[in-house]
């Protein structure tokens, strides 16, 4: 199986029945490659990304680590011509996932959102989407040196989770009340468990990251007594894609990327596993 589940490119060929795309159009290629249009989720507004009969890249067909890929007309993410494909590629999964995740927190402008795992690809997008939505942003990650990256993207605060007393420090900058919403993209389940401790009463924690260890411990009394909401979310629906792409096209979103040839994939994966990459690496499949 060929991996890769997000990409962007130019339409080089179209099927006979395709009406809304033409050769030369720029499109994003998401993991969701085809939906049926008739299942229960397809018929409920906003749930098309959970089509029960969907065809996914890397599950049912080869992913984007190749030069050409096919996609159903309805699932091709329309990109305005002014959009830089290198910037659009990571938006198609990482970007939309956190865009949707921030919506799921239910936060409104002026409220405080904590982003755990803020320096990586998802976190970097999350900081910018959150600032665009008018949220106050607490970026959390491991190590002091990632703070500069997060602040450059617009984070109001940066906290190093590798130091002790994270909960206390979150409370210090939120008048002892905690953030209204938390999105967790860190690849350590501890980050998710900690969020239960510092989130505000009536707050919402949205799990988006996929750590190696998935099971978590939570104190039910803490959840019910403080009216906490725990949510999961993956990718986004067609509306989320449309909105996120518009923010990219308007220059509101611009996360740092590194571009490397597809032939360097092995080296890149090593760096990802060491946690060395800030922002996102984009692979040029022609190299
Ligand atoms: Zn369906």
TrEMBL record:
- What Pfam families does the record tag this protein with? ADH_N, ADH_zinc_N
SMART domains tied to this protein:
PKS_ER
Required co-factors: Zn(2+)
Q: Which UniProt keywords apply?
A: Metal-binding, NAD, Oxidoreductase, Zinc
Gene Ontology molecular functions: alcohol dehydrogenase (NAD+) activity; zinc ion binding
Recorded family membership: Belongs to the zinc-containing alcohol dehydrogenase family.
Return the protein name: alcohol dehydrogenase
């Amino acid at each position: 199986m060929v991996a890769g589940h997000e990409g962007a490119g130019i339409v080089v060929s179209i099927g006979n029945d395709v009406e809304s795309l033409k050769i030369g159009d720029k499109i994003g290629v998401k993991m969701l490659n085809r939906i049926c249009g008739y299942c229960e989720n397809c018929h409920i507004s906003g749930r098309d990304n959970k089509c029960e009969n969907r065809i996914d890249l890397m599950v049912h067909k080869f992913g984007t680590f190749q030069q050409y890929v096919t996609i159903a007309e309805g699932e091709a993410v329309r990109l305005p011509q002014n959009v830089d494909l290198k910037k659009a590629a990571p938006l198609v999964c990482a970007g939309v996932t956190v865009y949707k995740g921030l919506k799921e927190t239910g936060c409104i402008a002026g409220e405080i959102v904590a982003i755990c795992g803020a320096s990586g690809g998802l976190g970097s997008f999350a900081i910018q989407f959150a600032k665009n939505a008018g949220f106050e942003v607490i970026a959390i990650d491991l190590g002091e040196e990632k703070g500069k990256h997060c602040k450059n993207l617009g984070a109001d605060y940066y906290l190093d989770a590798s130091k002790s007393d994270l909960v206390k420090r979150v409370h210090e900058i939120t008048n002892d009340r905690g953030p209204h919403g938390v999105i967790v993209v860190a690849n350590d389940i501890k980050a998710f468990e900690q969020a239960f401790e510092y989130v505000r009463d009536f707050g919402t924690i949205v799990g988006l990251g996929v750590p190696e260890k998935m099971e978590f411990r939570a104190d039910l009394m803490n959840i019910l007594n403080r009216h906490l909401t725990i949510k999961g979310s993956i990718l986004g629906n067609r509306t989320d894609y449309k909105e996120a792409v518009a923010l990219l096209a308007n220059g509101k979103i611009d996360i740092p990327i590194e571009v490397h040839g597809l032939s360097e994939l092995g080296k890149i994966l090593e760096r990802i596993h060491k946690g060395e990459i800030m922002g996102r690496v984009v692979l040029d499949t022609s190299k």
